[in-house]
Amino acid sequence: MSNQALLTPFHKNLDLKNRVAMAPMTRSRAANEGNIPTEDLHVTYYVQRASAGLIITEGSQVSKDAVGYINTAGIYSKEQVEGWKKVTKAVHEKGGKIFIQLWHVGRMSHPDFHDGELPLAPSALNPNAKSYTPEGFKDTVTPKEMTIEDIKQTVKDFKNAAINAIEAGFDGVEIHSSNGYLFHQFFNGTSNHRTDEYGGNMENRTRFFFEVLDAMKEVIPQEKIGVRFNPSLNGMFGITLDEETIPTFEFIIKKLNDYDLAYVHLSEPFNDVSNVPFAVEHIAKHFRPLYNGTLMINAGFDQESGNKVIEEGYADLVAFGKPFISNPDLVERFEHNYPIAEWDADTFYTPGKEGYIDYPEYSEEN
Ligand SMILES: Cc1cc2nc3c(=O)[nH]c(=O)nc-3n(C[C@H](O)[C@H](O)[C@H](O)COP(=O)(O)O)c2cc1C
């Protein structure tokens, strides 16, 4: 029996067989028509990884408006719910737990996904990024500033997606409020220039997020809701740090102590921010003292640093992304100190089985 911190069961508000979570990852294998998870691909992929303490699925759109990439799954149609039911059933049969990540890309999209209409965003500010459309990469456009009606409709979409997620058999949901997508666009002053109650001070910039959270907890227990943030994201996904960014995340995370959520999931910086003004370099260390609930940390961890961050008391759970792509049996590899297989970035988003469900479990031959 291994006594590694990562492999210790977690029995607090969540009941997990170990502290190794699979991070949410878009893999672009959903059926082209209808953004539906498929039996031959999705079921196999997630079942192969069911020894994780908790799987968090790929970002899954809460509505048609929320789409920004081809072949990404959704959780707003009946067919999508039916597709996901097969995944959750099979993962549960293997003794796994699975949350679905609820996603709205906001301005990280393209009119090609919206019958020629502009994507929605807090303000009409182009992220100057690329959108991967059915016709290949295209430049993003200046989005439409969301009206109050658009905001209210999106709150309803998240609420509805939460209901659908439970119907589909998920153990819970994670709100994707990270990585430059819709909520992050509201939080950040460089993407939110609104002058109404959704812009300006941090209470206003976070209002939409809390409205969604409050709406969701009306329909599913809040112990089934996790949230994800990437506070030091900079120079990627259209986001630039400013002097209010970290205080805004501090404000959010302290306020979340008033809730009883499944967890708060934070990412360490995705790139070197040691010389970036207004960045926090060590996210877990910085935010752990501010939050009383279950804290999950991610980005760049391996077996050693994952064990250490838990032992040092900076996190309860560690999410692994890329290592789970190429090591379906990541937990067993940690348990036996087996080597970790490298992932192939060329097949992260390509269609079909290759680079998706063909990574083998460890054996002495591979
Ligand atoms: C192929 C790929 C797809 C990703 N898709 C998502 C996503 O849908 N939602 C999300 O919150 N993060 C997404 N991420 C970020 C990962 O969850 C994770 O934060 C990142 O890979 C860093 O963790 P790692 O070093 O353990 O891989 C993605 C990352 C990769 C490599």
TrEMBL record:
GO terms for cellular component: cytosol. One of its GO terms (molecular function) is FMN binding. Its cofactor is FMN. Pfam families: Oxidored_FMN (PF00724). Keywords: Oxidoreductase. The keyword Oxidoreductase applies. Residues 9-338 form the NADH:flavin oxidoreductase/NADH oxidase N-terminal domain. It comes from the Bacteria. Belongs to the NADH:flavin oxidoreductase/NADH oxidase family. This is N-ethylmaleimide reductase. It comes from Maribacter caenipelagi. The lineage of its organism: Bacteria, Pseudomonadati, Bacteroidota, Flavobacteriia, Flavobacteriales.
